[in-house]
Structure formats: structure tokens, C-alpha cells
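Write out a record, focusing on structure:
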Amino acid sequence: MVEQNWSGRGQHVEFDKADRRAVDDILQVEEVLGSTNSAIVQSVKCKRIRLARKTIRCNRHLTKEMAIDEVAHMSRLDHAHVVRVIGTYTMGSDLSILMYPVADYNLRSFLQQIYISETGFDYWRSIVKSLPNFFGCLSSAVQHIHSRMTKHMDIKPQNILVRRNTAVEQQHRESAFKVYIADFGISRTYESLDATETEGPTMFTRKYAAPEVVDQQRRGLPADVFSLGCVFLEILVALANLMKPVPSLRYADYFWLLNPEAHNLAQMHEALQDQLQKTLKSNEYGDSSYQANLIAVQNFLSAIGKDKPGYRFLILQIACMISSDALERPTAEVLAGFWKTRAPCCVEGADPLEAAPLNTN
């Protein structure tokens, strides 16, 4: 099986540079999915299974030991909404991680599809119908991560992958897309809940980091909940922006989103997105992070609640998640418990591997 022996030599292999051709035969490169200064992610095919290969260029600032930490964190996890590790190998100073599945978008680019005029109505409707499920799916994933005494420490839209779920799309359009938490590069794993409370300098993405992380104060699992709350807010804004411009007490108004009129308006109207960006720039010090503009962001949330009554409970939930006081934030377990009945796909166990379609060209 690919997940047990992708290489024929076990899940982890140390290759020499002379083995490059053999590796290329096993892993057929399809396309580049993304890159940074220290890593490149490619789509590769291995025994008809399409995988994402993340190759990390190790050096004195990013050692192999540090890169292997990411694999260790991911290997502890087994959840339907967490990217799974299939195998690893080294070649020279590079470490490559093979992961499943290959995504079509990250959450940031996925949300942008709503406002692209080239997005056809049926595809657009599948996107919009999938979004409400993401609240429960992501809550369940973070609960699982925390139950393994792991802090992700970098939850943000760019680290949340979205894949088109073609197997169920025809029967359940609301499940046409599936989310996965990825990129455990700066995660940390601990032996106990008490040990998750740490302090001192650490890496983070400022825009989505909790106040205690930015201030290098003592922080624990609630820091992930804060970041998840920021992500929830951006999903909420994408949905609320498309609601009828007439206040209603009925959540059923959501279904108005599913007609062509809403689709056409989406191409011209991004008022809430623009307002959110202005809110994040209201800080006098030029700090556009959520934690630096919490009062303005909370006021922004309250305004949405007045205009879109159907979202009031979700808004209250997000407001608690991004509280400046870590003790006032709900745990991931509480969040997952609320959304449990609404997200039947959130089961223990990663996705089974599916063969990629045969190329008929």
C-alpha cells in the first residue's frame, strides 16, 4: 500500500543524490503548487495516487531536525480534516514530506472565488453551500489536534487547504468542498495539558496571532482558538456580505444566496470585505493584526449582528473566540461539541487514498 511503503523501501528513505532519477520515476512531478524561500510544494503522482510533496531546503537556520519536527507533529494526528503524512525522504540537504490530499485552494484563495466573475453559477453555488460546514469541520480538526497535546501555533487561511470533493458533490452540494488543516512547521507537542502553557519568544503570523503570543506572554491552547476565531470571522464576512440587504430574523434567508441574482451581485459587491480591511487598519500604529484592533473588530461584529440577525449566535461565538482574555475563549472541544450534529463528516480517521483519474490524452 502507498501509505505504508510508497518507495518500496519503507515510509522514510535516505536517498543519495545519485538516486534522483529513481526518485523521479517513483514520484512523477505534475505541477508546482506553491513555494517560499525555504520550501517548494509540488503535486506528484505515486502509483496513481496524487500527493503533495513539500521539499524543505535545510540549512543552518532550518536544520533537518527542525524540519523533521513537522513530520512528527503530523504523524500524531489522524483526522478527516487534517492533512496526512504518507512518507518522507532526504536527499542531500533537502527533506521531502509526502502528504495527502492535494488541495485545489487554500482558504484565502477559495473565498476569493466568490467574487471572480469567471466563476460559473453552479460552481459558485457549490462554494457558497460548502462554507457553513467549515465552521464545524475546522472546530473538529482543532479539537483533535489539541486532544493530542499539540498546539498548531499558525492557524490562518493560507494554512487551511480546500479540496473539491467530487465523490459526493452530485448528491450533496453542501459537501462539494472539504477543508484540511495543514502546515505544522512551528507546531509544538507536549506530554500534558499543563505543559502546553509556555512563554518566551516564538514564531507566529502577526495578523492572526493571539495577544498573548504577540506580547510573548504565557500562552496555551486558547491561542489557537483565537486564530481560528479570526478565520471564522473571514468566512462569516464572505457569507454575510451576500445576504439580502433587508434585515430578517430568519436564517432561511441564507437560501437566497443560492439563486443567480445573488451570484450576479457577488461580482460587484465586496462591501463587508472592504469594511473589515479598513477596520484592521484603524490602529494608530499601523498594525493591521486582529489583536491590535480588537475593540474595532468587536464593534464590526456587532454591526453585522444588527444587520444580519440570522448570524447572531455565530457572531457571539466568534466574539468569545477572539476575546483578549484567553480564559474567556471557548475550548476547541466546546466548539466541536456545538457543531457536531451539523458536521457528520468530522470523524476520527484521515481520508482513504483515492487513485487519480487516468490520463486519456
